[in-house]
Write a structure and sequence with these properties.
With 316 residues, the chain is an alpha/beta fold. The protein is 41% helix and 16% strand. The strands form three sheets. Strands 6-11-10-9-8-7 form a six-stranded parallel beta sheet. A four-stranded antiparallel beta sheet has the order 3-5-1-12, with helices on one face. A two-stranded antiparallel sheet has the order 2-4. Helix 8 (225-231) links the parallel strand 8 (218-222) and strand 9 (238-242).
Length: 316
């Protein structure tokens, strides 16, 4: 297996990302004022308990963000998760119980459910893609087609769904795309072939990186098999095969196997759940899917305010 991109885990950096977004979310609802409805109807001393319930089957993602959200509204409120983040859940299953100030729970409710619904939708869709390619040896990757500001959170959800993370940002490894080659045509010195671009990137990074620092991945996008033949002798880590048909992908795999078997191939462009199995069957190692993050359906979770329904049955 070739070098791979850094996986996004729940760590301090990811928590800091959500904390910054959480400030905006709180401001959207409260605008530095009050929840007037709760202030008018709920006594300040009222305590409550409620269940966070999955309305459909899928992969739950975002529990650490939900816990942080409740704490933002009340440091004394309690969030008891009944499943692990990334667990498969069933429709009607209680995934967590929250308790504390009723006013705080009411204020935090929508933000908690929004982040759980968004990330769980991504994780659930990712699992469907991963299941579709099971047994082929191909791995499913996300892309940078993410909601601005939410990229790390969305990539975290992809991992919980069983997918792999592509590069996190422009700072993280090199991906030479057709637009880079197009811009090169307007520079002094003329155009670059894919092979020349890879060699230049390799030489540049050899000068830039201190000795002992982890090597970066150099990946290049090609649109035609002639470009693939041109670039393989330069030894990129990965070649991205953009919008190729299954027949073209199979031919690309045969060319790679003959010329540079150590180079991994990534299929990309217009990948759908209905087509991903056929793409995986061509022999490519990687399939990048923008739909994981830009087209995932919201995962419905709700907050049930019925303490009697919260008997000591965590799996209910």
């Amino acid at each position: 297996m070739a070098k791979d991109f850094t996986p996004v885990c729940w760590d301090q950096q990811l928590a800091d990302s959500w904390q910054a977004l959480l400030q905006l979310a709180v401001r959207e609802d409260l605008a530095r004022l009050y929840d007037w409805t709760s202030a008018a109807l709920v006594d300040v001393e009222t305590e409550a308990r409620a269940a966070i319930v999955a309305r459909k089957a899928g992969i739950l993602a975002g529990l650490p963000a939900a816990i942080m959200t409740l704490a933002e509204y009340s440091r004394s409120a309690q969030f008891a998760a009944l499943v692990a983040d990334g667990a498969a859940v069933q429709a009607g299953q209680t995934v967590a119980v929250v308790s504390g100030s009723a006013r705080a729970l009411l204020a935090a409710e929508r933000v908690m459910l929004n982040i759980l619904g968004h990330l769980s939708g991504i994780a659930t869709l990712t699992r469907r893609y991963v299941d579709a390619v099971a047994g082929t040896g191909a791995r499913v990757y996300d892309t940078r087609k993410t909601t601005p500001g939410y990229r790390r959170l969305e990539k975290y959800a992809v991992r919980l769904g069983g997918g792999h993370n592509h590069r996190t940002g422009l700072f993280d490894h090199l991906l030479i795309k057709d637009n880079h080659l197009a811009v090169a045509e307007s520079q002094a010195g003329g155009s670059l072939t894919p092979r020349q671009a890879v060699v230049r990137a390799q030489e540049f990074m050899a000068q830039m990186l201190p000795e002992g620092q982890r090597a970066v991945i150099i990946e290049i996008e090609v649109d035609h098999l002639t470009q693939l033949i041109d670039v393989l002798p330069a030894g990129p880590d990965i070649v991205l095969l953009d919008n190729m048909t299954p027949d073209e992908l199979r031919e690309a795999v045969a060319i790679r196997n003959r010329l540079a078997p150590h180079v991994e191939l990534e299929a990309s462009g217009g990948v759908r759940l209905e087509t991903v199995a056929a793409i995986a069957a061509t022999g490519v190692e990687r399939i990048s899917v923008g739909a994981l993050t830009h087209s995932a359906q919201w995962f419905d979770v709700g907050l049930d305010w019925n303490p009697a329904a919260l008997a000591e049955t965590p799996g209910n």
